[in-house]
Design brief:
This protein is mainly alpha-helical and 651 residues long. Among the domains are: 1-120, no CATH class; 510-634. Helices cover 61% and strands 5% of the residues. It contains 30 helices and six strands. The protein has a four-stranded mixed sheet with strand order 2-3-4-6, with helices on both faces. The protein has a two-stranded parallel sheet with strand order 1-5. The longest helix has 24 residues, at 285-308. The chain is globular.
């Protein structure tokens, strides 16, 4: 099969070179669909992209079916970025014709609508909510099916629909469809739909749907019908969260255990996702009873799959996402899979997106893998969309990694973000600016644009229509504060005001925790006081201008002796930061970008920064060792003195 596909690809390349396909839209579409088959899609990205670009001038004249075929390929590969505007213009043309009275099947209407919204500006979400409500009003049990409902749920999730009446109607329709559905695969698509919907909107429950699914699973388990491993995984996924019958739940868990050698990576991800949802429920009796057992089974499945093929990129990506959900990245199989990315022969925007998510979640720095991503961005800059450019840039900042060919990489990313800026969320744009500031590459145009009333109003409008009011606005506000602080300190020539003092004052309480709650700083303080010999020279929980928190500040005179913090003889102040393991990257170990940035700013304030690693401290067994450790924090040996900033070039 592989040899046949290679010959086929060579023929396609030859035809493209000789321009034999330039006037054959139908042939190009069929070629793209074949090359985009999931089993080998990642090996054919460049050829698929070339085929799409041949059709670029024809996109606006394509039929609905042809346009949706191209969009499906684009959505799964997220390339080439050059055609995104053309695709959305083509989709917009067909949607306008529908508004003017053109008759079209509901499924096609929804697919066109989803093609319009997924890469559009977040500021348009309020309008899109009204549009989808209008389309949804035409939905009834006579014109919806499984595919319609899955597409609708994805749209609802993306534009954050939370209206109770719409949710009730949607799941009433789903219940009606699932009752008459005969295709088992479709039943489980709708079941998974409910799990994802309920995760997006935790306050909503449709108990009639849950009751029907419980009865369906019970009937299947008690019958003599053959149940596939994928069905068993779906049974368990649903029952862990919505199961009412403990005996039935136990039976499903046992059936799952009996089939561990037959499951695939997607089954692991499905069950892992349910365990995460279960943790958010108030009644965690099931979690306590089954969590360890299910986790052990998932680890067994992972090891079985890796024994069969440890170099399957698609499989490993899914297994790593499962491990991230279970917070099980310390397992040796997860570490091996992370390292395996170094051997990956192919790269694409979608692969890069997955790498960014996995390495960001794992806090893992493997330079060879990050360099593969940045090199791909440089060599394929026209095909990269702004979302992915921002993701790899922020990953470099998060891991504090200065990539090879950095100058080219940063310039390509800046150009791409400027091109696609209107499509980026406020948080994405702020994160890209913060990352560029960390690497001393922040363009003046970004500063002048962000710190304006117009941009702040735009940000407020986006947050007003935000769905996750408890998390997303806080992430935006915190990122804006960090950027405001960094620009004030590192780009004073732009006279950007510091307007987050009140915000910083509000979160001070976060740092002022009772000593009794934290053993690490309490014990460190005891030894610091003993070594310093001057309690007034050791100050705890210091908040600097611009809101940085310092665990301990030691004041020294010119002779290096500890003096009272308010003494006129203070010549130098040592800022001691206590860093736990999560502050460091894995594999290639150093402080993450956030902490290196903080060190740099503290040095700008005049502090000499010393870092106390929790992992080093806990390995010290004797008082003499701990006294020496603490002494080195105050009077570090020159050879050991480092704040971890070596990976970022000076401005």
């Amino acid at each position: 099969m592989k040899e046949t596909l290679c010959r086929y690809k060579e023929e396609v390349k030859l035809f493209l070179k000789e321009q034999k396909l330039h006037n054959s839209n139908s042939a190009l579409l069929k070629i793209r669909m074949l090359l985009n088959y999931p089993q080998w899609r990642h090996e054919n990205i460049s050829l698929i992209t070339e085929c799409i670009l041949v059709l670029r001038e024809e996109i606006n004249s394509l039929s609905v079916n042809e346009l949706l075929m191209i969009y499906e390929v684009f959505f799964k590969n997220q390339e080439p970025g050059e055609v995104l505007c053309d695709l959305q213009r083509g989709v917009g043309k067909h949607l306008k014709q529908i508004d003017e009275g053109e008759n079209i099947h509901l499924d096609k209407h929804l697919m066109l609508f989803s093609a319009l919204i997924y890469f559009s500006s977040p500021i348009n979400k309020m309008k899109y909510r009204k549009d989808i409500e209008h389309i949804f009003n035409d939905c009834s049990k006579d014109n919806v099916n499984c595919h319609t409902l899955v597409t609708l749920r994805k749209i609802f999730s993306f534009i954050k629909i939370s209206d109770q009446k719409i949710c009730e109607k949607f799941w009433d329709l789903t219940l009606d469809v699932i009752k008459r559905e005969t295709n088992v695969s479709n039943i489980w698509k709708l079941c998974n739909n409910y799990l994802k919907f309920n995760t997006d909107l935790a306050s909503f429950r449709h108990y009639e749907f849950e009751k029907w699914m419980n009865n369906y699973i019970q009937n299947k388990m008690s019958s003599y019908e053959f149940i596939t491993p994928t069905e068993v995984a779906s049974f368990l996924s649903f029952m862990l969260v919505y199961g009412k019958n403990e005996k039935l739940i136990s039976a499903v868990v046992d059936r799952f255990e009996a089939n561990t050698s037959q499951f695939q990576a997607a089954d692991c991800l499905k069950v892992s996702y349910s365990l995460v949802v279960l943790k958010t429920n108030q009644d965690n009796f099931l979690l306590q009873k089954y969590e360890k057992k299910v986790k052990r089974m998932l680890n067994d499945i992972t090891e079985n799959l890796l024994q069969y093929n440890e170099s399957d990129y698609e499989q490993n990506t899914v297994l790593l996402k499962s491990a991230i959900l279970l917070n099980d990245l310390d397992h040796h199989t997860a570490e091996n899979m992370l390292v395996k990315y170094k051997e990956m022969e192919h790269m694409s925007s979608k692969i890069m997106e997955n790498i960014c998510f996995i390495y960001l979640s794992a806090g893992s720095l493997i330079p060879e893998v990050v360099n593969k991503c940045t090199e791909y961005v440089i060599n394929n800059h026209q095909n990269i969309i702004g979302f992915n450019a921002e993701k790899i840039l922020f990953l470099c900042y998060y891991l504090a990694y200065y990539p090879i060919n950095a100058e080219k990489f940063f310039q390509v990313v800046i150009d791409t973000i400027i091109r696609d800026q209107e499509r980026l969320s406020g948080l994405s744009f702020l994160q890209s600016a913060l990352a560029l500031c960390f690497f001393n590459k922040l363009p003046s145009s970004f500063i002048k644009q962000i710190f304006t009333v117009e941009f702040m109003d735009k940000l407020d409008a986006e947050l007003a229509g935000c769905y996750s009011r408890e998390t997303y606005p806080q992430r935006v506000r915190n990122c804006l504060m960090q950027l405001n602080r960094a620009v004030c300190l590192e780009y004073p020539e732009y006279n950007v005001p510091w307007f987050h003092k009140k915000y910083v004052d509000e979160i001070k309480i976060k740092y002022m925790r009772p000593e009794s709650e934290i053993l690490f700083p309490l014990r460190i303080k005891d030894y610091l006081t003993e070594v310093a010999g001057n309690a007034g020279g050791v100050v705890e929980n210091v908040i600097t201008p611009y809101g940085y928190h310092i665990d301990f500040v030691i004041s020294l005179n010119k002779s290096g002796e500890v003096v009272h913090c308010e003494s006129r003889d203070v010549h130098k102040r040592v800022a001691i930061l206590l860093l736990r393991p999560y502050c460091y990257t894995r594999f290639y170990t150093h402080p993450k970008g956030k902490y290196q940035h903080k060190n740099r700013h503290l040095e700008m304030f005049g502090y000499e920064v010393s870092i106390a690693k929790f992992t080093e401290w806990v390995n010290l067994l004797y008082a003499e060792e701990r006294l020496e450790f603490v002494s080195n924090l105050i009077w570090p040996k020159k050879i050991e003195k480092s704040t971890g900033n070596s990976n970022v070039k000076n401005r």
